[in-house]
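ARCHIVE CARD
Drawer: 12
Card no.: 0347
Subject: one protein chain, sequence and derived structure
Cross-reference: see card 0346
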Amino acid sequence: MRRSLGWITGIIICLQLLTGCDKDACVESDCQNGGVCESGFCRCPDGFAGTSCEVVLSPCAVQNCHPTRSLTCEEVTDELARCICREGYEGPRCEQLWTQKFVGDYICTQECGQGQVSFGMKVTVGREFNRIALGNFANENAEIAGKLIDPNVFEIYEQYMTFGVISGAGSILPDGKIELFYTLIARGDTSSCVATLVR
């Protein structure tokens, strides 16, 4: 009995040594473009081929549009593609919200017909999708909401504040400045105002 146990133990040890020495077929694999090695061979994602997934079959595969923020990918040429973004998103992969480029601290120069005044303002992402919040609006320690109607333009819909009723519009310029045009109705008087926000 003792001899047969020793023999079985010897076989188990030999098998463990033999299987432990099996070389992983994927150790030296060089799968590219998101390919996954299986039993020494690269399994390529859609749009790629070749032994290492190095051949690009579709420029949209390389463009890698955001899965939920893009509508589709459009092939411009055999080597160039562009992502078609859902409303509210932009960027090469549709990875960025329209609102993101507005966010920051600004110095506002405002003119409402009685000379210019300057003060600090802060722009943050609003509480709802495609909204921005303009803090310290008109230097009144108030927060006004702006709704983006395209990537660079927002509407200041009519809002009732302690200092009056505000409505208007704004846009971001290529240099990062924000221009505001709005109407302030306070105590029966209407003022047309222009403001420029500079980071």
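Annotation on reverse: The chain has a mean pLDDT of 88. The longest strand covers residues 116-125.
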